[in-house]
């Protein structure tokens, strides 16, 4: 982050959320908004899981970030998919590349 003015007011920064926490909060809020959108209700009405391709009832669908927010993913339509509960809980915080690797190696991996 760049600031031009050198005379920023001296505030206590200790008790403010870190940039990461702030982004996380914002992206979570965006996701909540999207969840109420017609776009999302259409997705869960379709009921197709992005990962296993199965068909599920709308109430069985969950919102999943392809790239998790905690890994730098954003709450945009390009990064949000509908997934069944099973796939979503399997995926956890992994990125797509990690899932492929993990399935390939047959064991849990993290970078
Ligand atoms: Zn699934």
As for the CATH topology, it is DNA Binding (I), subunit A
Give the radius of gyration: 18 Å
CATH class: Mainly Alpha
Q: What is the number of domains?
A: 1
Count of separate DSSP helical elements: 4
- In one word, what is the shape? flat
**Averaged pLDDT:** 84
How much helix is in the residues? Answer: 25-40%
General description of the model:
This protein is mainly α. The protein has a single domain, classed as DNA Binding (I), subunit A, CATH 1.10.30.50. The chain is 39% helix and 9% strand. Strands 1-2 form a two-stranded antiparallel sheet. The longest helix has 17 residues, at 19-35. The model has no long low-confidence stretch (mean pLDDT 84). The structure holds zinc ion (ZN). Residues 49, 51-52, 54, 83-84, 86-87 line the site of zinc ion (ZN).
Helix and strand arrangement:
Blueprint: H1 19-35, H2 38-46, E1 61-65, E2 80-84, H3 85-91, H4 96-105
Antiparallel strand pairs: 1-2
Bound molecules: zinc ion (ZN).
List keywords for this structure.
two-stranded antiparallel sheet; 9% strand; DNA Binding (I), subunit A; binds zinc ion; 111 residues; flat; mainly alpha; single chain
Summary, kept brief:
This protein has 111 residues and is mainly α. 39% of the residues lie in helices and 9% in strands. The longest helix is centred in the N-terminal third of the chain and has 17 residues.
């Amino acid at each position: 982050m760049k600031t031009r003015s050198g005379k920023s007011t001296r505030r206590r920064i200790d008790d403010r959320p870190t940039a990461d926490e702030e982004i996380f909060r914002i992206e979570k809020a965006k996701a909540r908004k999207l969840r109420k959108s017609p776009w999302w209700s259409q997705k869960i009405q379709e009921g197709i899981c992005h990962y296993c391709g199965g068909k599920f009832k709308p109430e069985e669908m969950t919102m999943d970030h392809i790239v998790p927010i905690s890994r730098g993913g954003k709450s945009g339509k390009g990064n949000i998919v509908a997934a069944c509960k099973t796939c979503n809980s399997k995926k956890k915080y992994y990125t797509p590349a990690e899932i492929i690797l993990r399935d390939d190696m047959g064991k849990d991996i993290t970078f």
